[in-house]
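Lay summary. Proteins are chains of building blocks that fold into shapes, and those shapes determine what they do. In this project we predict the shape from the chain. Here is one chain we studied, written as its sequence of building blocks.
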Amino acid sequence: MSPSASSEAATSRDRGAIQPRRLTGLIRSATAHTSEPDGQPFDLNIERVLEHWTVAHAVREIIANALDEHELTGSPVPEIRKIDSAWRVTDFGRGLRREHLTQNENREKLRSDRVIGKFGVGLKDALATFDRHGIHVQMKSGHGDITIGRAAKHGFDDIVTLHAFIASPPNLDMAGTEVVLTGVADGDVEAAMGFFLRYSGETVLEETRDGQVLARAPTGKARIYVRGLFVAEEENFLFSYNVTNVTTPLRKALNRERTNVGRGAYSDRVKAILLASTSSEVASPLAEDLALIEQGRAHDELTTWTGVAVHACQVLNSNDRVLFITASQLAAGSSLISHAREDGCRLVVVPETVAAKLRGLVDHTGQPVRDLGTYRSEWNDSFTFDFVALEQLTDAEREVYERTDAILALAVPRHGTKVREVFISRTMRLDRGDRECVGLWVAEDRRIIVRRDQLRDFERYAATLLHELAHAFSGADDESRAFEDQLTKFLGKLAGSAVEA
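And here is the predicted shape, written in a compact code that computers can read:
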């Protein structure tokens, strides 16, 4: 259904689609009012209406027109209430006129950026749908009292068409329009209200310049709204969406012959909404979904648009302390991953294709997106050194330090090609308390740095020195297979030297 359409725009022209609200509290009771068709007949030129329009679609048109009028005039929000056995939809706008029953386009709606335009069943077809299902309709305004019935076409007594019967209004000062529907089922009215975001109870996660991201209900399909009106469902979307910035192609796809819209009409708008999002409420679920891409279980937003996945990582990096790693990096293991966890980083597993695009990328605050390489630099930069000159060492410390080359030569006789120097520092990484590191390999400087207290004991110093040498020759982190393999090789060489000695 929709807020307008060719013929329907006639009645809709004074009404418009707004952001929906819940049904709760809108159903009231009073006294029903019905009347027999009487007044001047107005031929609607309708013999039959397409059967795929349901009563709920017809009620949707009535509600849409009332909401359109609210949007276009700034009048109070329409009321939807049940009075005894009749449902009433009441707006407080300019009032329905007989001209609105003619077949024409509503230019006011087409120009407005607050209403959907024309989509689904129109007013005249809605009236015909009510007639086909035996629902009595009365439309009251300060411009006339309109009921629906069948009569012979003027000049052709053998052709019976649907007519509107227009009588003088009992209240010329009445504001707006009240549509009274007698015989309509409560379920049809509730289904009609469910077409509107205002009444749907959807949770808005974020609002962008192009529309809103909505939380998808735990059960059911994702829903696509255009300016507050439901137009399509998506089986495999992570979120629901309300498009508010309507493009020309989307506007053209909305017409009175359709009950829903294909993805091709709104996909670029959904992508634009996601790329404009900046909240963790949207980025976090997308990032969690990234790990499912390689399993073939990710939602369509990520499998369809790679740019959305990268954008989500950038947003998450801006808002939270995260580390993006691949499944293979997680499986291989690394002390850096353990350090990152201890530093409060949340691990986010991303596919290799996305990880490749994150390298060297900055987030929306200008900070580097944190992958394993970035975190390695952060880790190294977090060390604070207070270097000790050789002449500042005690005699006992100097005796241990002077055996540095001999220790390294046990594992690698020509270690000088990889390790240029070994420095001693009073401090290392100050913020780690009791777990402060005792050694560090700085590849760019070809330098091993050892904490001073390791010089108190030869074996402790030698162990730390050889540990960092294994990093130098493996180029790998602690807890990785490559590092362990290199350390194993060193142990073999040391054992061989000891046996020979």
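What the prediction tells us: The chain has a mean pLDDT of 83.
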